[in-house]
Every structure is written in C-alpha cells, then in structure tokens.
Specification:
Keywords: Membrane, Transmembrane, Transmembrane helix, Transport. There is one protein chain. 80% of the residues lie in helices and 0% in strands. The chain is mostly helical and 447 residues long. Helix 1 packs across helix 2 and helix 7 runs antiparallel to helix 16. It is globular and about 60 Å long.
C-alpha cells in the first residue's frame, strides 16, 4: 500500500501543474493527492483480490483437471463461460450503481464473488465446473467498470491515466503475488484435512474478498460530497475541477440512450475486445507455457510467473506517465497493443524455450496492462453522467466477449495441435487489428 502511495506522489499527484498555476492550483493538487492516498490503496487491494480469484484457475487446473476429467478444450471453455454471466449482468450492475451508490455495489460484488470462489472447492465434474464459473461471472459483473466510473467521478482528466494505472497495477501485483502463493498452496497443501491442494487454493483465496467487501461498507464514501474526511471547501473544489476539466466539454454525451447510438462507443468496445485476448494468454496460459518451457514444480512455476507481471508493471507506470504528460491516448494504446501482439508472436515461435517464453509473456504483460490503464481514459473524453456509467459497462461487456471467445478458441486450437502456437498467432492478429481500429477511429477526439 505504501508503495502505491509513493508511486502516486512521484507521478505528480502531489505537486502543482504549471498549466494551472496559482495558489488555487496548488491547493487542488494537494486535495487530489489526499483523495488518491485515501481511495487508491483500498481499491488497489480490492482489485488484487479480484484478479487472484479470477485467474487462480490457471494454477488449480494443473492439478484438478485430472481429478474432475478436464481436457484442454473443456478447460478453455470453462475459463470462457465465466464471461457469459459477466457480460449479461455488467450493464445492469453499473446502472444499479448509479441508484444505490458505489459503496454498496462494491461490497455486494466482493462478498458474492468470494463466496462463489469458495464454492469452487466442491466441484466434481466438468458440468459443475462450468456452472460455478458462470456463477462467478455473475457475482463479479460490474466490478471493474464500476470502479473505473467511480474513479472518473473523483478525478479530472489530467490525473486519470496515472490514477487508473495505479489501480490497474493491481493486475500486476496479483500476478506477482498470486502466482507464488497459488504455487505454494499446490505444492504444500495436498492432503490437509483430507482436502486436495486445489480445494485449499479456492478456500484460502476466496475468504479475503468477503472480509474486505464488508470493510468497504464503512470505508468507501459514495462521492466527494459524502466524504467526511473532506472539508466543505475541498468538496466544492473537487466539484469545480470536475466541471471545468472533466465534464465541461459540450460535445460529451450525457444520456445513455444517445450513447447507444454513437459509433465511438462500439469502436471503443472493439478496442477493449482485443485487449482481453492478451489478458487471456497471460492470465490463463502462462503457467502452462512456463511448464512447457521446462519448469515442472508448481511452486517454481508460480515464482517464474511473477516475472512478466513485474516487467509489465514497470512498463505500464512509465507509459501511463508519458500518456498523461503528453495528453495523448490513442497512439499510446495502439503502440502497446502492437507490443502485446509481438509478444504473442514470440510465444508462438519459441514458447518451448525458457528465455523466449518469458520474454514473450513479458511483452504481452506490458501491452496488456498498459492498454487496460490507458484505454479507460478514452471513453471519458466523449461521455459523461449516466452515459458514462452505462457506456463504460456496455463497452466492458462487449469487450469481455473477447474473454469468452479467446480462451475457447485458444483452448480448442491447443487441444487440436497440442501446441499453443496457433492460438498465440490468432491472438496477435486480433491485437494488431485492435491497435489499428483505435488509432484510426479515435483521431477526432484529439484536442
């Protein structure tokens, strides 16, 4: 947590911006630094737990596929069906957030997904596996877009890439910490109280979200206007900053119905669709790739799996800072999507060799993490109000169809060829297409 706070301070959230000189600008930066230090560490922890519970299946399946009769194709399908419930319930969840507030929404989602994750320990066959994954998707629906919307309601444009990068850093930390922890559980917990190690994995990693979700009920304010730790002057300042720097563009769409008719929403949705292919390669096949590269022990696989996330985190912070400094989004996104595509190609050509395999995963991690952080600054440039809440969820929902199709396609190709190469090349092509789409379609949004 202190590392996250320090990174935020170093990125400039605690200092004045020359473009907004004067005493008021200095005060504004101090207020936003204080808000960041209050909100980001907690939301960061929430997202770390979220990602660990979503992707720990990549480690569990190294052991439980033999216990419940899973093939590579059925594993890929099980990974993908998570997104059926996720997609169907994401927009309703974000629209409900506007009614009941972020505090109750985040708490509800975390408690439900933690309980469903724990229930995965009782799965005994592929059908139960599919049902549990769909239920987990329903429980998690709306979490990521809800927090993206929540953060955009606190911070003006000039801070968003840094703030979202600090939040998305949770993916990297989940990979850095979750892999070794999951590998250790698989290596040491088998037979404890007659349970298999993969059952302990789901139990031990499912309980923390329930506890943190309950804490969210009293820790998180719904908005700056309800934050007891901000003075009246500070609340007014936040409102003014959001109005003048975040929502004052008359060209922004303020109603969800109008957003549904705007082609830019769907261009963004396709761009996000392509990012999820990189996430699928990194989050669900990295342990298998590392094992194919010659690492057999689950504990060692977990340790090695942390390396790509660590490299990706560094790349994301650096590129996010540059994107904010230049106020340029689309080309940063496109460039990082092409980096992920290059990593996928490298995996396809040399995945069985240790150094190229790790290098390929690191490139995929840099592209995936950075694109995820930068991407959500793009819709905010033409959406506001209800349109922002609903459209962020809609974009995420459509985009997550990639998380449904990618594991299914990669799993089927891997099962048919006994090799991840074909799936990697397909992912690279999709990512390259997404890079071109955003680079071309979002040119009109440049200031």
């Amino acid at each position: 947590m202190e590392t996250t706070r320090g990174a935020l301070a170093q990125d400039g959230l605690s200092g004045p911006l020359a473009a907004h000189g004067g005493h008021a600008a200095v005060d504004a930066e101090k207020v936003f630094a204080r808000i960041a230090k209050r909100l980001i560490p907690f939301l960061f922890l929430c997202y770390v737990l979220n990602y660990i519970d979503r992707v720990n299946i990549s480690f569990a399946h190294l052991q439980f596929r033999a216990d419940i009769g899973l093939t590579e194709a059925s594993y890929g399908l099980g990974v993908g069906v998570f997104y059926i419930g996720y997609v169907l319930f994401e927009v309703p969840s974000n629209l409900l957030l506007r009614r009941i507030g972020p505090r109750r929404t985040i708490a509800r989602i975390m408690v439900l997904w933690g309980l469903v994750s724990v229930s995965m320990m009782f799965v005994r066959n592929p059908t139960q596996f599919y049902i549990a994954r769909i239920a987990l998707g329903i429980a998690e629906a709306g979490f990521f877009p809800g927090i993206v919307y929540y953060l955009t309601s606190w911070f003006p444009d000039r801070h968003r890439a840094k703030v979202l990068s600090a939040f998305v850093l949770g993916i990297a930390v989940a990979g850095i910490t979750g892999g070794p922890v999951s590998g250790w559980i698989l290596s040491h917990a088998d037979g404890w109280h007659t349970l298999r190690a993969w059952q302990w994995l789901f139990l031990l990693e499912g309980v923390p979200p329930v506890l943190v979700g309950l804490c969210a009920l009293w820790y998180l304010p719904d908005s700056a206007s309800t934050a007891t730790w901000l003075s009246a002057d500070e609340k007014a300042l936040v409102a003014r900053e959001l109005e003048s720097h975040g929502h004052a563009n008359d060209r922004r769409i303020g109603h969800f119905g109008a957003a549904l008719r705007d082609w830019r929403v769907y261009a963004c949705a396709f761009g996000y669709f392509t990012i999820t292919w990189a996430g699928s390669v990194l989050n669900f096949w990295a342990p298998s790739v590392i094992r194919q590269a010659g690492v057999a022990n689950p504990w060692h696989i977990g340790l090695v799996s942390a390396v790509p996330y660590f490299v990706g985190a560094i790349g994301m912070v650096l590129v996010g800072r540059h994107s904010d400094a230049t106020n340029e989004r689309r080309l940063h996104f496109a460039g990082c999507a092409l980096i992920a595509a290059a990593g996928a190609v490298l995996l396809g050509t040399a995945h069985a060799s240790f150094v190229p395999a790790i290098a390929g995963l690191a490139l995929v991690a840099i592209g995936y993490l950075t694109c995820t952080a930068i991407f959500w600054t793009i819709p905010a440039t033409f959406l506001s109000g209800t349109a922002s809440a609903g459209s962020i969820a809609l974009i995420s929902s459509i985009g997550q169809l990639g998380s449904l199709s990618a594991p299914t396609a990669i799993g089927a190709l891997t099962a048919a060829t006994h090799d991840i190469s074909a799936g990697s090349y397909l992912a690279a092509a999709v990512l390259a297409f997404g890079a071109v789409t955003i680079a071309v379609s979002m040119r009109r949004l440049e200031r």
